[in-house]
Amino acid sequence: MSVPVPPFAQLGNRRAVPLDQLPELTVEAFRDSIATQVDEGWRIVSLFGTPETATSVRLIAVLADDERGQLGAATTMVGERYPAIASLCAQASIFEREIAEQCGVIPEGHPRLAPLRRHPPDHRPSGWPAPRPPFDRDAHQFAQLEGDEVHEVAVGPVHAGIIEPGHFRFQAHGEEVLSLEIMLGFQHRGVERLLEAGNPSRAMLVAESIAGDCVIAHANAYCGAMEALARCRKSARAQSIRGIALELERLANHVGDLGALAGDVAYQPAAAFFGRLRGDCLNMLMTISGNRFGRGLVRPGGAAFDIPPDMARELDARTRRLDLELRPVAELFFGAGSVQSRLEGVGTVPHDACVMHGFVGPVARACAVHRDVRHDHPFGVFRFAQIPVATAWAGDVYARALIRWIEIQRSLEFVREQLGALPAGDARVPCDALRPSELVVAMEEGWRGEVVHAVLTDERGQIRRHKVTDPSFRNWTSVALAMPGNQISDFPLCNKSFNLSYAGHDL
Amino acid sequence: MLDLLRTRLAQGTQTIAFPNDAIALPERFRGRPIVERNGHATLDLGACLFAPEDAIDTPECRVAFTHDYRLSSRTRDGLVTATGKLGALSPLDGPMRKLLGRSLRLRSVVAGSCNGCEAELTAASNVVFDMARFGVQFVASPRHADGIVITGAVNVNMRGALERTYAAVPDPRIVIAVGACAASGGPFRGSDEAGTGVPSSIPVDLWIAGCPPHPLTILDGLLGLLGRIEQGDRRSASPATPEL
After folding, report:
1. Across all residues in chain A, what is the average pLDDT?
2. Distance of alpha carbon B225 from the chain centroid
3. Over chain B (244 residues), what is each successive 10-residue block's mean pLDDT?
4. Which of A71, A297, A356, B29 fits as disulfide partner to A11, beta carbons 3.0 to 4.6 Å?
């Protein structure tokens, strides 16, 4: 019962397997078995392509059964065209758009093969001729609605505040949004190619810069993948330090998001207080790592900085004070009727859509989907110190705010518990060469949701493919689904309640 | 309402007395590096990512981080030093400062970043750093702006939008480049898609180094540009104990 249904090879979070142990299926069997497994409650964690020969691409699918904590993987080989998985399974849609763009492969019958990040293929087999017509970054036609008084509103890429670039195209009838199409890719920097460039110390810094507010989660996942491939066993102390840093990052961002939501509904006291308290969380990361976002802390083999006993005591006192200061502000915010009425029933993501598209993180948990890597696929410190999964059911802005507040309280408890009982051991141990021809999948529950680094090594133990999946990659679709029926003036509020990363999506 | 007032009183005043107060940064904070022995030629603060690995201590070379958060220069070359020391930051000329008065309105353009610099720019406006008390604010349109703040490596997909936004700001206009990406491409240097920072077609008035720069670094750079910080104070302040 606990064994994944063939034809998938069993994997674990950060457990590397030799590539030749993955069952190589025909493309039809690959497609059918993914669709069947997803129908049975599994979900796609990663689906990506990498050039195999000069004229073929290898596709690798990683699926998860969250309830049983299982991961399964399979592979297939395709040429320039293959029958799209997305026509059977909606979760595959965005992954196949990515494969089409990165590898230059066409998934035939894909329901919506629009460009994703608008860059020329960077993982295309060398033997294929250049595509014709040549790549055009601005070729996309937005879907338009027609009708009396239907109008179009275009926003971005440059926004009206200090916000990352992205383009939003609304079809609206008066104030009411009929549909929203989101075009991203403006932050595309070619992150995966840099991670694959064969310079590990540089790649570490790139991994910390995938999404600048999600440094620890990406660094943990990156190092988790490297350590699994190198069979490096880091100390319990290092795992604890990484867990503390991950939860401090969650605290900073969740507190900041509550402040930003307060600002968007013009409830200034909570906006100011939460904004300041967010800084206190960042400053705790700075005390540990020397940088407000925790850059430099997580390194292969453990943590570059230890938390000595006096620092642990000081951080514990600061966490206690933070807890005491946060509670009255949260009571003000959630207790104000004027705030509640602005958050409830706005920007609702339906539960069924969440399951169908495989959304992750607080977005999923706010529509009653019990999904959290720390709980479902535990690793490191989370195998010993469980954090209960918080869910709400309404799927609206209020539910997403509430999830954040519950998670803030749980993270505070966790951080204090860990600081009070840091295990002995070295903060960092050596991390040696990577094993050749292996696949590893490292998942981490960042504050936005599931961060995935899937890494494939070649026969010399060099990185052959490094596939990064930020939670924003999966969740941007939920923003587009939440908007129809809402007022266009509520878009900033809705968007803030998701607070997805443009950089993390665009890579 | 009573709860609101009680919370307000409990929260107290949190704004720091920048630039007058001594600011305590944690022991491990990585500010401006100093170079004592250098096996290499020079140190480019515009390309420095302030990673712990950048601190080196070998017989040929010793680079250590100080607590000095001041990392700005009026010229790109000014960020390249042999010792890690930066020259004095000269303010904007008299007519320009007179034109701006006590107000500087900026438009943010993000072009191929990780969102770290943007987070610190936003933090510079919170109640702790409160940039607005110095008259600096971010506005929603280039038409309302005295200048633009550029973050990110100026990647291929944003270059056109950046150039159009710059063109939409009325002359005379100020350009401020924030972070390692805007100065050099930062961690993304070497990628075909990422770019190597603000192109020469857009003249930059102020470079603020850091990955990302601390809000104090941003405040110091902006106030230095506006001539609101005494130069003597700014540059003669002794660096704190280097971190080793």
Report:
1. 92
2. 11
3. 82 80 85 80 88 87 89 93 87 90 93 95 91 91 94 94 94 95 94 92 95 94 88 43 36
4. A71
Domains and CATH numbers, chain A: 9-108 (3.30.460.80), 210-466 (1.10.645.10)
* Architecture of the domain spanning B94-232: 3-Layer(aba) Sandwich (3.40)
**Considering only CB atoms, which chain A residues are within 8 Å of B243?**
290
Burial class (CB in 10 A: 0-12, 13-18, 19+), A26: exposed
In Å, how far is A411's CA from the nearest CA of chain B?
Answer: 22
Triad B82, B85, B89: Cα angle to 5°: 125
ipTM field: 0.92
Distance CA A100, CA A285 (A): 39
Query: Model confidence over A454-480: pLDDT tens digits?
Result: 999 999 999 999 999 999 999 999 999
Contact at 8 Å (CB) between A228 and A220?
no
DSSP H or E segment with residue B127: none
Count CB-CB contacts under 10 A for residue B23. Answer: 13
The reported pLDDT for the residue numbered B220 is 92
3-state class (DSSP) for residue A62? strand
Select from B49, B117, B158 the Cβ nearest to the Cβ of A186. Answer: B158
Q: What is the pLDDT of residue B40?
A: 64
> Please, are residues A478 and A498 in contact by the beta-carbon 8 Å criterion?
yes
Closest-CA distance of chain A to residue B214, Å:
8
Domain ranges of chain B: 94-232
Q: Do B115 and A202 touch (CB under 8 A)?
A: no
Counting as low any pLDDT under 70, the low residues of chain A are 1-6, 133-134
Provide the token pair at B84. 């890690």
Q: How far apart are CA B113 and CA B121, in angstroms?
A: 13
